[in-house]
Design a protein that fits this description.
The chain is of the alpha/beta class and 424 residues long. The chain has helices at 4-15, 29-32, 67-78, 80-84, 114-123, 132-144, 152-160, 163-174, 182-193, 199-210, 225-238, 244-250, 287-300, 339-351, 371-386, 416-423, and strands spanning 40-45, 50-54, 60-61, 196-197, 255-257, 262-267, 271-276, 315-323, 326-337, 358-369, 390-394, 412-414. Bound molecules: glutamine. One of its GO terms (biological process) is glutamate biosynthetic process.
């Protein structure tokens, strides 16, 4: 049976087929000559299955969609502070190739515009015999689960018309933001941009970002979580250049476009999406690609700012039982303990204090406990203990293994067997 998700992606291709506005990138001859009618879309959830439709096997150059990944490598190589000292994180409101630096700091405003991306490229560590480009390609291969190569024709074509990027690199060098040979930096950056990918590759790469930096199929932690979060934040504010505000209000997810016509989008925790269509709008973003993304966002409910249904209460049920002749209150908790769900539990306990001295928290149905929930639980435990309650935790999965009250007092623990034996 064909997946309905594929049928849906087919409809994205047909429903946007009439959009022929914009033009292929004119400043890179190889891209200017691309077939403008090609279109593709792919989606990959954090489960790792890729669904793709349209010209799904067509390879095109990653271009500026390489920028967030190169930025991640620079951060992992040097630490965030080092990189922030050299490249800002403020949206520039300028076009991607603007010859601009922050007048106050003399630094590139962010790593998504070319000024920041050329500097980023020079920060990627290269050992003897390994170039920054090799590192980036190896990273793409880990993300996409297949070897990724440079499209030499695209790289050579862009190198011949690289005046603007060379100008930028010399500007960066002059202001102290770029050490080393500016021409070499541009040549490396251009090869990074010429890496050849499909929408399926990109969806898998985006899904890794959605999955907190863990490649969904190999399970490899390719980016550490704080880097991943930082990266997505910069993509959200700067990824679509001078169209970033419009993008965030309409599509509403961290994204990055490339001048060959690709766009990737990431809904943290859920899905990576990628689209391709070579004609660009005035901002250098794929015109039909933006339309495809708008449809995906609307139909699949991707917008980050959509106030979703409040998290379910963490309280599955409250039981009053007799344990060895003593009455006990059992709170059976469920799901993820996040701010809103733990707040509703604490509210319940405060407004209807347990009527028994013995209080059991059964965590068997709990999946994840965020730090805020752990802290709040510790503080609640302290108050209950201070009021004379005896607190017991049943936590077979070790979800809150080292749990103590907020004064560091250990909390009694029972196994599920002890609980069921006691309940009888
Ligand atoms: N927006 C883009 O994709 C730009 C990338 C391209 N290689 C350039 O530097 O001009």
């Amino acid at each position: 049976m064909r997946s309905p998700i594929l049928d849906y992606l087919d409809s994205i291709i047909t429903d946007t087929a009439h959009i022929d506005s914009g033009a292929t990138a004119d400043y890179i001859p190889e891209l200017a000559a691309a077939d403008p009618t090609r279109a593709a879309v792919a989606l990959c959830t954090t489960n790792g299955t890729v669904y793709a439709s349209g010209d799904a096997d067509h390879q095109f150059s990653i271009q500026s969609m390489s920028k967030p990944f190169a930025y991640a490598l620079a951060i992992e190589d040097h630490g965030l502070d080092y990189v922030l000292d050299r490249i800002g994180v403020e949206p520039s409101g300028d076009a991607f190739n603007e010859l601009s630096l922050d007048p106050e700091t003399g630094k590139p405003r962010n790593p998504m515009i070319n000024a920041g991306a050329i500097t980023t490229h020079t920060l990627i560590k290269a050992d003897d015999g390994t170039t920054a480009v090799d590192r980036v390609l190896a990273f793409f291969a880990d993300l996409a689960e297949r070897p990724v190569e440079v499209d030499e024709a695209v790289a050579a074509s862009e190198l011949r018309t690289a005046d603007r990027n060379l100008g930028l690199a010399y500007l960066l060098h002059g202001s102290g933001s770029l050490s080393g040979d500016p021409a070499k930096a541009v040549a490396g950056y251009i090869r990074q941009c010429a890496a050849s990918v499909t929408v399926s590759d990109l969806a898998l790469m985006a899904a890794t970002l959605a999955n907190g930096g863990v490649q969904p199929n190999t399970g490899k932690q390719l980016l550490c979580r704080p880097t991943n979060r930082h990266l997505l934040s910069v993509m959200a504010s700067c990824g679509m250049y001078d169209a970033a505000g419009n993008w965030l209000t309409t599509v509403g997810i961290p994204a990055k476009s490339g001048v060959a016509g690709g766009i990737i989008g990431v809904l943290p925790g859920q899905v990576g999406v990628a689209v391709f269509s070579p004609r660009l709008d005035a901002h250098g973003n794929s015109a039909r690609g933006v339309a495809m993304m708008e449809l995906l966002s609307e139909d699949l409910g991707l917008h980050l700012m959509e106030a979703s249904r409040p998290s379910r209460s963490s309280l599955w049920e409250t039981q009053i039982v007799s344990l060895d002749g003593t009455e006990a209150t059992i709170y059976v908790l469920q799901g993820d303990l996040v701010l809103s769900s733990i707040e509703s539990l604490v509210h319940e306990i405060l407004t209807h204090p347990p009527r028994t001295d013995l209080v059991v928290f059964d965590m068997s149905r709990v999946d994840e406990v965020l730090p805020v929930a752990k802290r709040t639980s510790s503080e609640t435990a302290t108050k209950l203990i201070d009021e004379g309650y005896r607190i017991v935790i049943v936590d077979p999965e070790g979800t809150i293994e080292d749990f103590t009250d907020s004064r560091g007092r250990a909390v009694e623990r029972w196994t599920p067997e002890q609980l069921s034996k006691a309940v009888g």
